[in-house]
Amino acid sequence: MKKALVISGGGSKGAFAGGIAQYLMEEEQRDYDLFVGTSTGSLLVSHLAAQKIAAIKHAFTHVTQAAIFSNNPFVVKQTGKLTKIKINHFNVVKNFIRGKKTFGESENLRKLIAREISKEVFETAKAKHKEVVVCVSNFTLNEIEYKSLSACSYEDFLDWIWVSCNFLPFMSLVVKNRFEYADGGFGCIIAIEEAIRRGAKEIDAIMLNTEVQQLNRMRSRNAFDVLLSTLDFMGDQIVKDNIKVGQLLAKEKGVKLRLFYTPKVLTTNSLVFDRHEMENWWQEGWEHAQHELSSNSLG
Prior knowledge:
Elements: E1 3-7, H1 14-27, E2 34-38, H2 40-49, H3 53-60, H4 65-68, E3 74-79, E4 82-87, H5 89-97, H6 107-116, H7 119-127, E5 131-138, E6 143-148, H8 154-165, E7 174-176, E8 179-183, H9 192-197, E9 202-207, H10 223-253, E10 256-261, H11 275-294
Parallel strand pairs: 1-2, 1-9, 2-5, 9-10
Antiparallel strand pairs: 3-4, 5-6, 5-8, 7-8
């Protein structure tokens, strides 16, 4: 019976998904045949398929803003326990002067992906005959596309992972094969439907949001706040549609679906990467999976 692990987008919150996945694979001994990731989920799936969990945990819990952005559109200031996030207007203007189409650039992330997802990890996942799939958005054709590790060269697959993570307009717009591509989450944040289409009969899906909205958004202070609120609103609607369709299709096809949500709001800006927070979230994810499964609340 084909088993799938599906991980949603969620930026820095991917560390929480990593903790859940580690518990499922090491403690519950779940042996997945299919791994499907969108955005931050795409950064996890190759290592999980290759069973290199310690390596991806180290990568997620040691990442910094500088490791992601070659031109950072944000200013992050820490005042005691309070984190203040503002738009870096100087960097945004600098990007426009350079003729770029986005507020920031994430070329450092592509370099980080190449360092962390080695050819050994790629070949190990392929040798284990695991199906590893990442979701990307083709802006030129206005379509969602799914890229499989088994059908790609090493360099191409790294490109697709990078593409899947590029959240516009704050990260790079990638041109590949003459098409413009960006974050898979613009079309599909959690690809339960795709896992079912590929034959999965048991699915563990990790959704990096709370099941019920726990915070109302603050009133916008400027145009950038309005943009962020707009993108968040659109993302929330995509999530609801993805889960509703996934649940209906799972019921129709007789697929056993377990959904894991975050028990609290982890962050209000998942494009800020704080290594200490992410280290805590990984552990919290592990503990959350333990609690949910021991209490049999997922069914």
